[in-house]
C-alpha cells in the first residue's frame, strides 16, 4: 500500500497538538466540577416518612455531555488530512507499456518514469527500466539493450539481477516484448554466437534468434532465495540486436502462478504455442532444448485439441516418391526431426522419435478417440503433424490427459537432412466436457 508520508507527518503533529490542548482544557473542567453540587433534589419534592418527619429523596445527577462538541471538532480536523491508500497494481502507461501504480515520489525513488496517472489521479503509472549491470526488485521492470530504443551492435555480456520484492514471490514471468539477437549456427543449430541465459532458478535452456511475443516462467522457490540473473551474451559481427524483456513478479498465492516445472504457461480456452526461434521462413529449430509447456485447464473443459498453424510460406517440394512434384509442398508449421540423412516429410511417432520430439500424452487424431491406452502415442516428430505414423496429411490431435502438458526435446546435433527444420507452431482449443471426453 502506498502512503503519502508527508501527510502522515503533518497528521501526527496535529494529533500531538490536539492532545496538548485536551490536557490543558481538562484541568479547567476539573476545577469547575469541584464547585458543582454532586447531588441535587428530586423534582417530586420532599417526601414524608412514616414517623412524620421530612425525608428528602436524592438522585445522582449526570454531568452534561461535553464530549460531542469535542468529537465534532476532531472530525473536522481529520477531514482536512485524509490518508489516501491504493494497491500497487499493474497499469497501462501513455506509450502502451505496462507499469506499476505508485505515488509520484515513490516512482522517482525507484528511478522510474511517470507515464500517466492511476488510482483516480492519486498515483502515477511508473515505468522502471534497467540495462547492463542493473539490480531490480520492482514488479513490471523492463530489461533493455544498451542505447535502447536504438539497436545494439557489439560484443558484450549484459546482465541484470532480479531480487524478490517480497518473500511470498515464487516466480518471475519474462515477456519478450522485443527479442532479436543472432540465431544459431547452421550445422547443428546450436546458439554459439549470441545467447540468452537464465541462472539462479529452475533449469532453463539457452535460446537465441527471434523470440518476439514469447515468454518464460522462472521458479524461484519460497522465501528469501538467491537472486536470479538474466544475461544476454552477444558476439558482435555486425548484427543489429534489440531486446526488451518485461519482468513480472508472481506471488505464491495468486491464481496466475504457473504450475511448478513449467517453462511456459498458457491460460484461456484457446491460444498459440511456438518453439523458441520459430519462424516459417527464416527460423531454425534450436538444439539442446528440454522443457515443459503447460496449459491451464479451464472450468467445464476436459480435453484439448492441437492443430498446426496455417502455413502460407511452405517449404521444400515433396519428392516424386510421395506425390506429383510441384503439387504438394512440405509445411513449415511442424518440422521436427533430428540426426537423419534424408529430410523427413511424413509424420513420425513413438520410438521413431528418439532425438527430437514433441510429447503430447496419449495423443490421437481428432474423432478417433482410443478405447485402450496402447492405441494412442506420446511422441510426435517428422515433417507432418499427425498422431498416425507415415502420414503425409496433417491432422488435428486431441488429448484428454490432465493436466494439459507438453514436453519439447531436442538433442545437440542435426543430421544433414534436418538443418532446415523450423520447429513448431500449434494452435490449441480446449474441448468441453462430454461423456466421450470425461
Separation, N- and C-terminal Cα atoms: 45 Å
Q: Into which percent range does the helicity of residues fall?
A: 10-25%
Class inferred from helices and paired strands: mainly beta
The beta-strand count equals 27
Radius of gyration: 35 Å
Stretches where pLDDT is under 50 for at least 5 consecutive residues are 27-64, 320-327
Which of globular, elongated, flat, extended, rod-shaped describes the shape? globular
Give the biggest sheet.
Answer: 11 strands, mixed
What percent strand? 25-35%
Q: Count of DSSP helices? A: 3
Mean pLDDT score, rounded? 81
Helix-strand sequence: HEEEEHEEHEEEEEEEEEEEEEEEEEEEEE
What does this molecule look like?
Disulfide bonds join 191-208. The structure is a single chain. This protein has 438 residues and is mainly β. Among the domains are: 86-126; 128-254, Sandwich (Jelly Rolls), CATH 2.60.120; 291-367 and 375-432, no CATH class. The chain has helices at 5-35, 67-79, 104-110, and strands spanning 39-41, 47-48, 54-55, 58-60, 90-92, 98-102, 113-118, 123-130, 135-136, 141-144, 155-162, 169-180, 195-199, 215-219, 228-235, 242-251, 264-266, 270-274, 290-295, 301-308, 334-335, 347-349, 357-365, 377-382, 397-399, 404-409, 423-432. The strands form five sheets. Strands 17, 18, 19, 20, 21, 22, 23, 24, 25, 26 and 27 form an eleven-stranded mixed β-sheet that branches. Strands 5, 6, 7, 8, 10, 12, 14 and 16 form an eight-stranded mixed β-sheet that branches. The protein has a four-stranded mixed β-sheet with strand order 9-11-15-13, with no helix packed on it. A hairpin with a 4-residue loop joins β7 (113-118) and β8. It starts with a helix and ends in a 6-residue tail after the last strand.
Amino acid at each position: 500500500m502506498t502512503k503519502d508520508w508527508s501527510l502522515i507527518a503533518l497528521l501526527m503533529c496535529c494529533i500531538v497538538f490536539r492532545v496538548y490542548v485536551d490536557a490543558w482544557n481538562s484541568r479547567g473542567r476539573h476545577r469547575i466540577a469541584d464547585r458543582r453540587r454532586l447531588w441535587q433534589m428530586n423534582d417530586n419534592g420532599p417526601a414524608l416518612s412514616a414517623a412524620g418527619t421530612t425525608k428528602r429523596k436524592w438522585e445522582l445527577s449526570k454531568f452534561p455531555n461535553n464530549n460531542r462538541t469535542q468529537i465534532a471538532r476532531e472530525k473536522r480536523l481529520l477531514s482536512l488530512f485524509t490518508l489516501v491508500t491504493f494497491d500497487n497494481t499493474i497499469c497501462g502507461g501513455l506509450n502502451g507499456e505496462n507499469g506499476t501504480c505508485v505515488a509520484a515520489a515513490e516512482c522517482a525513488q525507484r528511478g522510474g518514469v511517470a507515464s500517466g496517472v492511476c488510482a483516480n489521479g492519486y498515483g502515477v503509472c511508473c515505468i522502471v527500466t534497467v540495462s547492463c549491470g542493473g539490480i531490480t526488485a520492482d514488479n513490471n521492470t523492463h530489461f533493455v539493450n544498451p542505447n535502447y530504443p536504438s539497436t545494439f551492435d557489439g560484443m558484450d555480456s549484459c546482465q541484470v539481477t532480479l531480487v524478490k520484492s517480497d518473500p511470498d514471490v515464487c516466480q518471475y514471468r519474462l515477456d519478450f516484448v522485443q527479442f532479436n539477437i543472432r540465431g544459431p549456427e547452421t550445422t547443428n543449430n546450436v546458439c554459439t554466437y549470441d545467447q540468452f541465459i537464465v541462472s539462479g532458478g529452475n533449469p532453463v535452456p539457452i535460446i537465441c534468434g527471434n523470440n518476439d511475443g514469447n515468454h518464460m516462467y522462472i521458479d524461484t522457490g519460497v522465501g528469501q532465495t538467491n537472486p536470479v540473473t538474466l544475461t544476454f551474451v552477444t558476439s558482435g559481427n555486425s548484427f543489429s540486436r534489440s531486446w526488451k524483456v518485461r519482468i513480472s513478479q508472481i506471488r505464491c498465492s495468486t491464481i496466475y502462478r504457473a504450475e511448478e516445472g513449467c517453462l511456459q504457461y498458457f491460460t484461456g480456452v484457446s491460444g498459440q504455442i511456438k518453439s523458441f526461434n520459430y519462424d516459417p521462413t527464416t527460423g531454425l529449430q534450436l538444439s539442446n532444448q528440454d522443457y515443459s509447456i503447460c496449459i491451464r485447464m479451464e472450468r467445464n473443459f476436459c480435453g484439448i485439441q492441437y492443430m498446426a498453424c496455417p502455413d502460407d510460406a511452405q517449404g521444400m517440394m515433396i519428392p516424386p516418391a510421395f506425390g506429383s512434384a510441384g503439387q504438394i509442398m512440405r509445411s513449415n508449421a511442424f518440422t521436427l526431426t533430428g540426426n537423419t540423412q534424408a529430410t523427413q516429410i511424413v509424420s513420425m511417432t513413438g520410438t521413431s522419435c528418439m532425438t527430437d520430439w514433441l510429447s503430447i500424452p496419449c495423443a490421437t487424431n481428432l474423432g478417433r478417440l482410443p478405447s485402450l491406452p496402447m492405441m494412442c502415442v506420446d511422441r510426435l516428430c517428422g515433417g507432418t503433424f499427425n498422431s498416425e505414423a507415415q502420414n503425409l496429411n496433417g491432422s488435428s490431435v486431441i488429448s484428454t490427459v490432465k493436466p494439459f502438458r507438453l514436453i519439447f526435446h531436442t538433442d545437440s546435433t542435426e543430421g544433414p537432412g534436418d538443418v532446415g527444420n523450423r520447429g513448431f507452431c500449434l494452435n490449441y482449443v480446449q474441448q468441453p466436457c462430454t461423456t466421450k471426453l470425461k
